[in-house]
Amino acid sequence: MTTGQAEGALVTAPPTAAARRRITVRGVVQGVGFRPFVHTLATELGLTGHVTNTGEGVVAEVEGAPAALARFGERISGEAPPLAVVETVDGQDIAVAGDAGFRILPSRAHGPSRTLVAPDAATCEACLAELTDPADRRHRHPFLSCTHCGPRFTIVTAVPYDRALTTMDRFPMCPHCAREYADPGDRRFHAQPIACHDCGPRLRLLTADPADRTRPPRPAPGTDPVADTRRLLADGAIVAVKGLGGYHLVCDASDDTAVALLRHRKARGDKPFALMARHAADVEHLVRVGAEERALLTGPVRPIVLLRRTPHPAPAPGAPTLSDAVAPGSPDLGVMLPYTPLHHLLLGLPGDPPGPRLLVMTSGNVAGEPIVTDDDEAVRRLAHLADAWLTHDRPIRIPCDDSVVRISDGEPLFVRRSRGYAPFPVPLPVPVRPALATGGDLKNVLCLAEGHRAWLSAHIGDMDDLATQLAFERAEAHLETVTGVRPQLFAADRHPGYRSGRWAQSHTDGRPLVRVQHHHAHIAAAMAEHGLRDGRAVIGVAFDGTGYGDDHTVWGGEILLADYDGYRRFGQLAYVPLPGGDTTVRRPYRMALAHLRAAGIDWAEDLPPVAACPPDERPLLARQLERHLNCVPTSSMGRLFDAVSSLAGVCHHAGYEAQAAIALEAAALEAGEDHGPGYAFALRAGPAGPGAADLVADPAPVLTAVVEDVRAGTAVPLIAARFHAAVADLVRRGCALARERAGLTTVALTGGVFANTLLAEATARLLREDGFTVLRHRRVPPNDGGLALGQIVVAARTAGAAVR
Ligand SMILES: [Zn+2]
Ligand SMILES: [Zn+2]
């Protein structure tokens, strides 16, 4: 305030000195309180004029002293409201008009909509203060929100973003809310989802009939659904709670019986559950929370943050305890803090009766199916999972799972980019035609793009499930609605069996479909998010579980020399036969046996995977490998991690994706820095021929060394750490050779294997020490959740002139 007044006082402006500018602000600037912000700013600086929403963004005309206009230009991007993301601010001098004051004009929608819908945002501090204030009219209102917080993406049914085009359309505002909504000075000016006790959505608690769970649940008799739910949770019940982007299954994370029951009902194996805590302080005795992690936990998104567990947590008096069944064997805990008013209420406000302080919060779905959003479906499909349902009558338009993020090398690394990030676009360094990329079949995320922006959908799931395929169709249609992109081109993975590819094929309607190689797409995604322009090439290191190779084998340990247009396969992990696909993915001991055989090492009884393989399975497997029956050659690095995990005796059966590799990483973390020399891969020239790489990395010496260490009784953490060091060193040597032969100095690290932060950080460090520029993912996941971004950049780039 003082700044503006001081400057106004300095300029004794005669009428002729006044100037007028039209300023266009683009980005996420609608539905986030931008116009009131402009109103306040202009008034403070003594400027006249007006501001409005248009199809292009927020357009302000401001008039006054030139110095004040300059200040306005600076502050409009520097001080924007919390949910706004200002992409560009353009100004243009226009004729002075001599307005009397500053006004907010009604929205003008014309032309194609290019405004962006904001992601859903966690309850802000101001709303939280109202939630806890007995004197406030929204005290304890489970749906309070404002222009700075609340649902957005998950309630939008069409654009422009306006209450009538959200699922709030069925809740007419009471006069009190309507007044706030219409007042430019109010925090709730044009906040579309606002509501109060008088006019907003209502909670309902339904309970199952314990005697007969097939009968529909009945409304609970109590009058306070939140208090009743908290009592149920304290008594060990599993409650399906309707959140922002779907239902969660919730139970008391301190209660061994409840957590075990949920694990059993969900048929979850040992897959870790995420937690919700009231404060970071309630988990600080369990995990390490650094400054960056804390910022993520408490920021406007509040994703699940993966935090390293304290190896041997000391008992912390007064702190909540955690059941061992929440995340058995996992080196991390996935923790989030409350992000809706309902979550705050569930964990208890100050002064509430005590209740569970740590809640398991896991997606309300049947394993493999998408998160449930529909209320009837929730009752039907979660009937065998939940004892009660805490639901409400505000529909969820589109499912949106929690995002999962960790901090690696001081930067965010996404495991899943979904709630709070979708549909915020990823800026593209090269313009693309309007296009749709359908992603991969695991962790499916689709992508629409046009010009310099790519919009990734929320996490959709694994496409082998019919319900997921339907969710994919809905997500695609919704994203088209929200973004206004009408694809002229489709991009999909080259795998002929991928359902995401088949869907693209059957929906092109005559539009071209470009098939993009899996690992090329991973590398292109990393290049795009780091802003690499056309013509730049990188050494792309793509390590993952599975990707369809040009020679019809299963690739996954690849070094490609790549730009957006194409690639050359420079290096690969040596092929070994993958016996029987999925069975072997679920049973790492089979992969270990395949690798042992390929390395010429006998299946001796003293080796853990041999002992783990049932005696009657061994001869069958041996014959299968010998005759190449139902075997596909694979160069997968993910499978090599599985093999070594089993060989070291860490994990023989994977109950969830990448469990063996995660357990191996956990073991390596215990070793610390001082693990002696790592093992070494042998590098040799590749065979000539189509699809073959220049360089082949043979893991046989690594396997021989692991076997020696196992037989010498070397501690498992040391074996695990030495293997990690071997892989990091392999990348360094491969990249050094690529630099020598091709002159490239930038390395992109990508693929699901690089979600392993121990490996990724060690590899990046070695490469940097060796003078390379290292690109790691920080906007999309390194796993298949980031694939669609790369597909679209490879397939839809427009040559030459920039398109808007
Ligand atoms: Zn708020
Ligand atoms: Zn109201």
From TrEMBL:
Positions of the Acylphosphatase-like domain: 20-106
Active-site residue numbers: 35, 53
Keyword terms: Hydrolase, Ligase, Metal-binding, Transferase, Zinc, Zinc-finger
EC class (word): ligase
UniProt cross-references to Pfam families, sorted A to Z: Acylphosphatase, HypF_C, HypF_C_2, Sua5_yciO_yrdC, zf-HYPF
Catalytic activity: an acyl phosphate + H2O = a carboxylate + phosphate + H(+); C-terminal L-cysteinyl-[HypE protein] + carbamoyl phosphate + ATP + H2O = C-terminal S-carboxamide-L-cysteinyl-[HypE protein] + AMP + phosphate + diphosphate + H(+)
Pathway per the UniProt entry: Protein modification; [NiFe] hydrogenase maturation
InterPro entries xrefs: Acylphosphatase-like_dom, Acylphosphatase-like_dom_sf, Acylphosphatase_CS, Carbamoyltrans_HypF-like, Carbamoyltransferase_HypF, DHBP_synth_RibB-like_a/b_dom, HypF_C, HypF_C_2
Domain of life: Bacteria
One BP annotation, GO: protein maturation
Protein name: Carbamoyltransferase
Organism: Streptomyces lydicus
Lineage: Bacteria, Bacillati, Actinomycetota, Actinomycetes, Kitasatosporales
